Amino acid sequence: MDFSAQAFASFARRDQRFWGEVYLRGLMLDGERKSVEPMAARLPDGDRQSLQQFLTDSTWDPVPVRAAMARRMAELIEPEAVVFDDTGFPKCGNESAGVARQYTGSLGKTANCQVAVTTHLATDAASYPANWRLFLPEKGWDPLSPLCPDPAAVRARRSRCKIPEEVRHRQKWRLALDSLDELTAWGVQVPLALADAGYGDAFEFRQGLTDRALSYVVGVKADMAAQPASAQRCTPAYRGRGAPPKPAYPDKPVSVAALAADQKGAARKTVAWRTGTKHHGGKTRTLRSRFIAIRIRPAGDAVAKYYRGQDLPECWLLAEWPTGADAPVQFWLSNLPADTPIKTLVRWAKLRWRIEHDYREMKVGLGLDHFEGRTWRGFHHHITCVAVAHAFLTWLRLGKETAAA
Fold first, then answer.
1. Average pLDDT of each block of 10 consecutive residues along the chain (405 residues)?
2. CA dihedral 45, 49, 52, 53 (to 10 degrees)
3. Contacts of 310 (CB under 8 A, 6+ apart)
4. Which residues form the Transposase IS701-like DDE domain (predicted)?
5. Which among 378, 394, 384, 379 is positioned nearest to 10, based on CA atoms?
6. Is the dihedral of CA 85, 100, 146, 157 positive or negative?
7. What angle do CA 344, 347, 398 make, to 5 degrees?
8. CA 386/CA 359 separation, integer angstroms
9. For the chain: N or C, fewer Cβ within 10 A?
């Protein structure tokens, strides 16, 4: 398989390349379970022990594999945005690397699971999960954290999972920026970043994107504090005692939900962003809703501290206000230029659907959450191979579409 040969070109040994190709075929073959034992049974050249060794004990580095695939897929799909998200992997026990009771959006609840931060290259027509970071919860997996109740027990737990000493807890938004920096080091650069409120609510994440010269459209929660764009700092009168007052905004910030709700009905515009999937009757429908786009100044303690003595910068607030709803239901911030059309803002805000498509394809078709091992290395080997399988299927699909055109 030429594709696997290119994907695994960094492997030092021939046997690693062989079992990598076998593992890829196992992931893409039909079968309800994509863990090692059932795949080995289905494959004509499958060997459970060899596949297990390739996955959990072999010393191959997944990073060069991801780098090669990221460059190849960036050339193929010509991504318009990099999208950050995370997904959960339910677990029954407590010994898998990073497992804990934690919230995951893929399950919509708190559960015993692992969580991985993912970085996708995306367009309207295709996307690719180019990079991964396994999230380590602070309390149960970082022995140097003040929240850790028993450092010795945590070190023993990490040793059983073979987690490298230098790997510690990092917030998900930091893992996302780390992943972005790695993509850039691989030579893959995309000018626009998208994320949901789990990332967009963190001012440090938004500022990190700005510092890296990226535009962004990121979700935020309804209660995020902001000033209207018209707000201006003013200097209170000096009363002759103490230090002279400094310029400040005269009114307290309010929530973005309140700012959006203050807009008159005429400000709401109906915008269509893509053709949806088929529904009953075999017909497709155009997805549309009503939106408001206004200029605001995000506030809050972290923003105020960073911009101390300066005007808070303006950005876009995009709010979705469906027909019949009493108030807006979703909110996004964007640092795109002030003359950006609302249709463009909506298009980028809604592009995150591609990531749900990736997760569904990898979990339903490629066994993303079927890994039964417990080690750090095994987890990253498995998800890297799943991403390569996803890349191959995307390459096949886009090739057929190009030929048909």
1. 86 94 94 92 93 94 96 95 96 93 88 96 95 96 93 96 96 98 97 96 97 98 96 86 85 95 86 75 81 96 92 96 92 98 97 92 94 95 97 88 51
2. -110
3. none
4. 8-278
5. 384
6. negative
7. 120
8. 11
9. C
Q: Which residues pair with 269 in a beta bridge?
A: 291
Query: What residue spans of 294-375 are helical by DSSP H?
Result: 301-306, 342-350, 353-360
Fill in the DSSP letter of residue 338.
Answer: T
Contact 298, 329 (CB under 8 A): no
Nearest residue to 142 via CA among 82, 100, 202, 205:
100
Q: Are 225 and 298 spatial neighbours (Cβ–Cβ below 8 Å)?
A: yes
For helices 14-28 and 376-404, the axis angle rounded to 10 degrees is 70
Please give the angle made by the CA atoms of 127, 129 and 135, to the nearest 5 degrees: 145
Closest to 133 in 3D by CA, of 77, 183, 172, 91: 172
Tokens of 298: 């995000």
Strand partners, 103: 110
Closest CA to 301 of 204, 222, 213: 204
Nearest to 335, CA basis, from 177, 195, 223: 195
Q: Taking the CA atoms of 235, 239, 240 and 242 in sequence, report the sign of the dihedral they define.
A: negative
Q: How far apart are alpha carbons 377 and 15 in whole angstroms?
A: 18
Q: Are strands 315-320 and 100-104 parallel, antiparallel or unpaired?
A: unpaired
Distance (Å, whole) CA 216 – CA 321 = 21
399 to 120, 324, 390, 394: CA distances (angstroms): 20, 43, 14, 8
What CA–CA distance (Å, rounded) separates 249 from 243?
18
